[in-house]
Amino acid sequence: MARLFAIAAALVILTGCGAKKTTTVVTPGGSVTTSTGADGKTTTEFKGEGGEINVTDKGEGSTSVIKDAQGNVTNVETGKGVDVAAAGIAVYPGAQVDDEGKATAQVTGAEGTHTAAAFTTTDSTSKVLDWYADQLKTQSKTTTPEGGMVIGTNAAGDQVIVVAGTKEGKTTIGVQVMGKQ
Fold first, then answer.
1. According to DSSP H, which parts of 39-153 are helical?
2. What are the φ/ψ torsions at residue 99 (nearest 5 degrees)?
3. What is the Cα–Cα distance from 137 to 78, expressed in whole angstroms?
4. How many angstroms separate the CA atoms of 64 and 108, rounded?
5. For residues 109 and 74, is the Cβ–Cβ distance under 8 A?
6. Which of 113, 148, 154, 164 has its CB 3.0 to 4.6 Å from that of 143, i.e. a possible disulfide?
7. pLDDT exceeds cutoff 70 at 38
8. Beta 61-68 vs 30-37: how paired, if at all?
9. Average pLDDT over residues 71-92
10. What percent of the chain is modeled with pLDDT above 70?
C-alpha cells in the first residue's frame, strides 16, 4: 500500500500539479539555471564570480535583479508594470504604448531610477514636441522636418529627454527620465 501511494504521489508531481522544468548549465564563468513553471513563465538565474542575475518572466514584461560582486543591486522592470507617469512625466494625450507594454522599462540602482517608454500618436511631431516643451522646464528644443527633440527637467528636477519622429504615417515618441537617488 505504501509503495502504491509513493508511485501515485510521484505521478501527480510529474504530471503537472505545479510541475516545473529546470535546466542548469555550468560554464567557466558561472552557472545558468532556467525554470519553466506549469504556467509557462520562466525564471532564469545566473550566478558567477562577478555577481548574480535573476530574470522572471511576468507574461507582459519581466523583472530582473542584478547583484554585483560588491553586493550592489540594480532592479530592471519591463512591460506593463512600468508607470511612466510615476516617473515624473506625463504620457502625451491619446498616445498609445504597444498592447503588451514591451516598449517600457525602468532601471533602479545606486545612481537613481531611469525610466524609458515609447508611444505612438497620429498627431504631428511638432505638436508632440510643443506639448512636451510646455510640460518641462525646457533647456533645449531641436526640430527638423522629420521630427526633433526636447531636453529639460520635470517638476522633481529629473533630466527628461523626449524624441519624436515619424514612421509608417504615425508619430513615434520616445521618453526618457533620469531620476536622481
1. 125-135
2. -55, -35
3. 27
4. 10
5. yes
6. 148
7. yes
8. unpaired
9. 83
10. 86
- Mean of pLDDT values over 35-55: 87
Most confident of 41-45, 137-141, 161-165: 161-165
Q: Residue 2 pLDDT > 50, yes or no?
A: no
Asked if residue 175 lies in contact with residue 89, where contact means CB atoms within 8 angstroms, the answer is: yes
Q: Determine contact, residues 119/85, Cβ cutoff 8 Å.
A: no
Measure the CA angle with vertex 132, ends 126 and 137; round to 5°.
130
Whole-angstrom Cα Rg for the chain? 22
One-letter amino acid of 73: V
Q: In the structure, how many helices (H) and strands (E) does the chain have?
A: 2, 12
What are the beta bridge partners of residue 151? 140, 161
User: In whole angstroms, what is the distance from residue 68 CA to residue 74 CA?
Assistant: 9
